[in-house]
Design brief:
Structural class: alpha/beta
Strand content: 15-25%
CATH topology of the largest domain: Nucleotidyltransferase, domain 5
CATH class of the largest domain: Alpha Beta
Radius of gyration: 23 Å
Largest sheet: 5 strands, mixed
Number of strands: 15
Shape: globular
Distance between the termini: 27 Å
Helix content: 25-40%
Order of helices and strands: HEHHEEEEEHEEEHEHEEEHHHEHEH
Number of helices: 11
CATH superfamily of the largest domain: ATPase, nucleotide binding domain
CATH architecture of the largest domain: 2-Layer Sandwich
Length: 400
């Protein structure tokens, strides 16, 4: 039974996926929630129990049918496992997740992608080493691992299994990484754009859990966003996304590598923030004045110390992001905006700029969304990576 790929019919997958997110349900609750026929449901649950997918536990209460102790159903978390991988311009994270999506083992490291030897070859080598280490450390039989879910800063050509990642990083624009990893481990690999994955993960596990309409803004080396509308991803296709960073906010603005002018990303990217602060640091008395090189860690630390220039530059970037959000509010219903930044201080300052723009420019009859912020969290990314694979395993969209 290679790599645990047991054939499941749609109803069996439906029940398993339901219990992964709503464990401890009785048979009656499952039947009612999923609109199944009672007699057939008992047979399905019994079959899944015998196959090892589910665990049945009797409760101590007597409020079940005819006064009997009700049986409650749970996922067998140790039935199978998934490898989750996330990388972006500065970090690589790899983890082993159980069948319920919980992280069992993980490894992460700060690793400037652009500095790796041979770029895409160096990246593939680093990631395969991490995956190998996690598998060895787990002590699991390889057949217990269903496959690998990848979260990547770009899209994937589903025909050639090539990733289209950082177009501004020489040697990484078109990468064979997905195919290389799949061939190396002999495990199926599912890729998803990091913006879509983080939106799904925030809805499932993060600050937006259960909120039907929300936008997740991912701001690290560049900026992007993905939305959940009526409990569904606005775009779940890995080849499509909102292209939030390429929303035009100034049609006379600076040229963008996409061919347009005045794209939002031009004014909020890592390179822009650092360039602005470097240009003004000496004249405005910033604590970063005099440094030959500045990075986002230094900017974040300076914000934490109250540096006015760093706060202003990031805050004004947030003002511009707010303009992009206002444009999306004409298309989307938004109860919540999740802002995920490189660090919490950076995310908080950007969020404050977004809030100011919404407060000043949103029409008075429009309800303004709540804004939450946080810094980079590899656990959210890894859980999202695992869910990326499991969603395909159950032949469902990532949110259903």
């Amino acid at each position: 039974m290679k790599n645990m790929m047991i054939e499941l019919n749609p109803k069996e997958k439906f029940i398993i996926n339901y219990l992964r997110f709503d464990p401890g349900k009785t048979t009656s609750e499952i039947v009612n929630a999923l609109s199944l026929k009672r007699a057939n449901s008992y047979n399905i649950l019994s079959k899944l129990h015998k196959q090892g997918f589910l665990v049945c536990r009797k409760t101590q209460t007597t409020n079940g049918e005819r006064g009997r102790n009700p049986e409650r159903w749970y996922i067998n978390s140790t039935y199978a496992y998934v490898i989750g991988v996330e990388f972006w311009n500065w970090w690589i994270a790899v983890g082993l997740l159980d069948f319920s999506g919980n992280i069992v083992i993980y490894k992460n490291t700060r690793c400037p992608i652009g500095s790796l030897t041979g770029n895409q070859d160096g990246l593939a080598s680093k990631i395969t080493d991490f995956i190998h280490d996690v598998i060895v450390e787990s002590g699991l039989d390889r057949e217990k691992i269903l496959g690998i879910g990848f979260v990547a800063p770009g899209v994937v050509d589903l025909t050639t299994k090539e990733g289209i990642f950082y177009s501004h990083q020489k040697g990484l624009y078109r990468s064979a990484l997905p195919r290389t990893v799949e061939n190396f481990f002999g495990l199926p690999v599912i890729f998803q754009h990091n913006q879509i994955t983080y939106a799904m993960a925030e809805y499932r596990f993060g600050g937006g859990r259960g909120i039907s309409n929300q936008l997740t803004i991912l701001w690290r080396s560049e900026i992007g966003a993905a939305a959940v509308q009526k409990d569904q991803l606005f775009f779940s296709d890995p080849t499509r996304h909102l292209k939030f960073g390429h929303m035009i906010i100034d049609f006379r603005g600076s040229p963008c590598r996409c061919g347009q002018r005045g794209c939002l990303g031009n004014y909020v990217s890592e390179s822009f923030i650092i360039s602005e602060i470097s240009r003004l640091a000496e004249s405005e008395g910033s604590i970063l004045g005099g440094y030959s090189e500045i990075n986002l860690d230094m900017v974040s630390e300076a914000i934490g110390k109250g540096d006015k220039l760093c706060i202003r530059v990031v805050f004004e970037a947030g003002n511009k992001v707010g303009v992009g959000v206002l444009n999306l509010m004409k298309l989307l219903d938004l109860e919540l905006i999740n802002v995920i930044g490189y660090t919490d201080d950076l995310a908080a300052t950007l969020s404050a700029g977004i809030r100011e723009t919404l407060d000043e420019m949103a029409p008075p009859n429009v309800q303004k969304p709540t804004i939450k912020h946080k810094g980079y969290d590899p656990f959210v990314g890894l859980r999202g990576a695992g869910e990326t694979f499991l969603a395909q395993f159950f032949n469902n969209s990532p949110l259903k």
